[in-house]
Amino acid sequence: MKRKLANLYLILIFIILYAPIIFLIVYSFSEGETMTNFHGFTWSHYHTLFTDPRMLAIVANTLLVALLSSLIATLVGTLGALGINRTTKRVTREALLTMNNVLMVSPDVIIGASFLIFFTMLGIPLGFGSVLMSHIAFEIPIVVLMVLPRLREMSSSMLDAAQDLGATTRQLLSRVVIPFISPGIFAGFFMALTYSLDDFAVTFFVTGNGFSTLSVEIYSRARQGINLEINALSGVMFLFSLLLVGGYYWIQQASHRHKQRKRGVTS
Amino acid sequence: MTKRRTWLYFIPYGLWLALFVIAPVALIIYQSFFDLGHHFTLGNYSAYFQSATYLKMTLNSVWYAFLITLFTGLISYPTAYFLHGLKHRQLWLLLVILPTWINILLKAYAFIGIFSQAGLANQFLSFIGIGPQQILFTNASFIFVATYIQIPFMILPIFNALDDLNPAFINASQDLGASGWQTFTKVVFPLTLPGVKAGVQAVFIPSLSLFMLTRLIGGNKVITLGTAIEEHFLTTMNWGMGSTIGVVLIIAMVVVMLLTGDQKPKGGTPR
């Protein structure tokens, strides 16, 4: 009986969690102009979406910013994690980690507003450059947080062995350290990617007039009311997030299997 | 020589810390001491603390964030608890996290449709005989949508805390004759409190700054700290006052962090 009530509760929560998303996607196939009463099946909103040059340009912008910023953030974040891992003093490490997490806990509005002041003071024009830099900035801490645990797991005897066998610092990094922490790096990259695609508030502050990403575009269109082209867009984005989640899950599973296999060998 | 060279790798990260972490926080504090004419002034702070409108707005914002956090917690704790008892719990957890990967604006937009005059919610209300109501652009709809968006961020840390809980404690409590309810209130809940605290951190602070929801769903009736900051920065261009409210928000954030203890964030997407 208790079990049944619990399951009922869970079913209800899952319905609430997914209903709005399903609702959006269902109406992307509806003829007519509003999200009330389904008017019959059509692909026309997807057709409008894929022949809307402004929207396609914005999608391209969004993907470009997301990929480029995640790549750079992954690079900088990984180097940062290596640096933090090398610190020997506990105080320094704690201080670095605290500073690292400042952008993780700050509200988006504060990040956006402070970056806007920053760019304006330096005279950096608002647009692609400022959006890209902001995205890199708020993605770096999550990469660090994903890479650090892997670095901690790495045994020092492995590094000593490599050094004893005559590996240079560069070889040590490229042949031993990087391969070992690569699952963390990939996870960091994926998280950075989703952060970038998800972000609205920070981009909204630093985007200026000429440049727009999907979130900002959705915001301005949603303020004007219902437009089923946005529904079609959400259908596409849902598929895309499913692929991303799938990719992320696959990497996690792969690294898990890798670990288990290694354990199987040693024991 | 090699030692010094390896530190070169640290330069990009160090630059990031200086330019994008320390500098912006310093700048927002600096900016809060300047008025519209770029003169140094304490006027923003005195205006803020003497204005009933600003103080009321701040209290309102904190109150709404409190309500959102409370509802999110009340809904999420049982969910995490029941979820943790399932067989394929990791898979179910993934399904809880999945909606957070959908852009927050698309979810808000969905609710514009659901809550509209002839939308799904009103059709349901008519069906059960209450008749259509004005749902969109009310405070209740704002709280509902904000709670909806925050639920996964509360479930995740509570679920992790339940995962960390040693089942031996529960067995011991049952062996010692505690009822199911006693086991829950005296053992399970206190031991998973860190998860609840982490969840409160992940929900309360963002709830103070959800300006897009107040615009799209709340119809500008609810003004949060975030809405006020956005208004001052992007509409009225009064950056000094905007920064002052920003400093207030930062202080509120630090207070929440201190109250909820120094919990390490546990996995998941905090946004």
Contiguous low-pLDDT stretches of chain A (5 residues minimum) are: none
CATH topology annotation of chain A: MetI-like fold
CATH architecture of chain B: Orthogonal Bundle
How many distinct folded domains of chain A?
Answer: 1
**Largest interface chains and counts:** A-B, 83 and 83 residues
Straight-line distance between termini of chain B: 42 Å
Number of helices of chain B: 13
β-strand amount of chain B: under 5%
Q: What radius of gyration of chain A results from the CA coordinates?
A: 23 Å
CATH architecture of chain A: Orthogonal Bundle
Written as H for each helix and E for each strand, in order along the chain, the element string of chain A is HHHHHHHHHHH
Radius of gyration of chain B, in angstroms, nearest whole number: 23 Å
| Pattern of helices and strands of chain B | HHHHHHHHHHHHH
Write up this protein:
- Chain A has about 270 residues and is mostly helical.
- Chain A has a single domain, classed as MetI-like fold.
- Chain A has eleven helices and no strands.
- Chain A has helices at about 1-25, 45-50, 55-85, 90-105, 110-120, 130-155, 155-165, 170-200, 200-205, 215-225, 230-265.
- The longest helix of chain A has about 40 residues, at about 230-265.
- With about 270 residues, chain B is mainly α.
- Chain B has one domain (about 20-35, about 50-260): MetI-like (MetI-like fold, Orthogonal Bundle).
- Helix content of chain B is about 75%, strand content about 0%.
- Chain B contains 13 helices and no strands.
- In chain B, helix 2 (about 10-30) crosses helix 13 (about 240-260), helix 4 (about 50-85) crosses helix 10 (about 180-205) and helix 12 (about 225-235) runs antiparallel to helix 13.
- Chain B is globular, with a radius of gyration of 23 Å.
- The relative contact order of chain B is 0.14.
- Classes of the chains: A mainly alpha (about 270), B mainly alpha (about 270).
- At the A-B interface, helix 1, helix 3, helix 4, helix 5 and helix 6 of A face helix 1, helix 2, helix 4, helix 5 and helix 6 of B.
